[in-house]
Sequence to fold (455 residues):
Amino acid sequence: MVDYISRLDRALEAPEGGARSLALLGSTGSIGRSALEVLRLHPEKFRVRALAGARNITLLAAQAAEFRPEYLGVMAEEDIPRLRGLLPAGFSPVILSGREGYERIASLAEVEMALTAQTGAAGLRATYAAAAAGKIIALANKESLVLAGGVLRAACARSGAVILPVDSEHNAVFQCLAGGIAARRGGNAQAGVSRLILTASGGPFWGKTRKFLRTASPEQALDHPTWSMGAKVTIDSATLMNKGLELIEASHLYGLPMSALEVVVHRESVVHSLVEFCDGAQLAQFGRPDMRVPIAYCLGFPHRLSSGLPGPDLPALGALTFARPDAENFPCLALARRAQERGRGCPVVLNAANEEAVAAFLARRLAFTSIPLVVERCLDEHSRRIAGEAGRKDGPDFGGPDAGRIGAVRQDAPDQYADAAGERAAVDEIFALDARARAQAQEIIESLPFNSKPA
Ligand code: MG
Fold:
């Protein structure tokens, strides 16, 4: 947090009257659509310069017709003619495609803030491009920090980029830390913090028996009780891997060791996270479980914008509940903790194995209870390999295990990422490890008898 807060000056100087220019990566997904809903409420405050959506070309064309950006991005080059055909007559923005197209959009000179809301590890490339180009990043792709927290910190330090967390829990922490007020006064926003408490809804399977979980279907797992989100994050919410990834994300954002990060299950999803201070005081952020609230906070930062939503109706809620996570039925939380503590690529492997396992579960090729099994086996295999690799003991760890100390300014740029070339090499190395872990996860998935003997 300290390193980001100390560089928030640019974000703090957001023009009161002028319009902030934006690029939205992942504009057709759940976060992207919510962001556009907020932007519709404030047409005078923002100028949408670029929209990128991977697959939903029809929706992307409709968004483009409404917001008229100068640039559009799609993942597949072959979608360009169709997208052009769907645009209104006389409107011909530059259309970029593929990984390079996304990277270019994230780093456009005319863009001040990039919202990175793609799903999964693939989002890292564009997030890194935005960080290297010194943008204000409204980060909704948690995988970027899980995979490459150290690289991104180094890039931000070098370029002056800042990261504002869109993820509701991290946004709540950011708000509780007064969102830069301390920085404006030259203070340390993290001073006196003893721990962060991330809340978890528990997902659709909280309280279910092992027997139920063994045969749980994708439809059941996608039926989230409080949040409406994309499929991948909803399954991650059901396994609690989402909270595991968020622990790693928080560790990088706020420079805290895993031992200072806790999770409590809070079924109502009204308290989005808490900060505990050394005097025992806890500050919490309350809000409806709707991503428009944290999105509006990031888009308007440091000013508050209407999100279009009222606050929670507390008397109607009546009671709020808090419980410890069930480590036995939801082992992903502990796997994520262990991966970040081990470092040396373990978070990359954790994420890759999980993405493959979730896709296999959604395709009915893997039992729900086998998702953590696939992740654990991939992590064990990786641990064996790095233990046996001579000379790698001090090799790149992409930012984990986290050595940040509470109240201390953390080391921003590890030596191995001394320049942009070093950072890019580290990102390439991350994706090589990611590909290897995915291949191995597939082998493990194939070897597991579906629905017969899950973990
Ligand atoms: Mg979250």
User: Anything to note?
Assistant: The pocket of magnesium ion is lined by residues 167-169, 246 (CB under 6 Å). The longest strand covers residues 193-200.
